[in-house]
Fold this sequence. Notes:
- About 60% of the residues lie in helices and about 15% in strands.
- The chain is built from two helices and five strands; from the N terminus they run H-E-E-H-E-E-E.
- It has helices at about 10-80, 100-110, and strands spanning about 90, 95, 120-125, 130-135, 145.
Amino acid sequence: MADVKTTKAPEEVKEAAAPAAEADKAKKPATKRATAAKKNVDTAAKKVKTAADKAKKAVKKDVEQTKADVEKVKKAAEKAAAAKDAVVFEYAGKQINADEIAAKCRAAFKAANPRKAIKNFAVYVNADENKAYYTVDGKGEDGWFIEL
């Protein structure tokens, strides 16, 4: 037997190659669009990262400024607390602090009336009688006083 070689006609080869060539042509624009889209995504990601970094820096700076402001307020409050006024009464050889008198009067009222709320409290010192009278919410009674 003899070897038989089969060959395709040149037209058939061209027809078979045509769809492959068209696929290559279609593939090139799609690749270009994908590459462009990837560049756009990368650019957008860089912009977002840059904006996030700027925001982080701004927030960090604001936090540091706020901490500094808080420290200033604390120092001012400490100075204000340190500068406390005192009222002291001197009579008959005694020295009596006004804050202590008020605290003792309030404690005496609370001991007698533990459940009553105090909205307004006033103390009246009578040096002649050696007593401090007090009123609660604008009302006073005969027994509401302390001995000085």
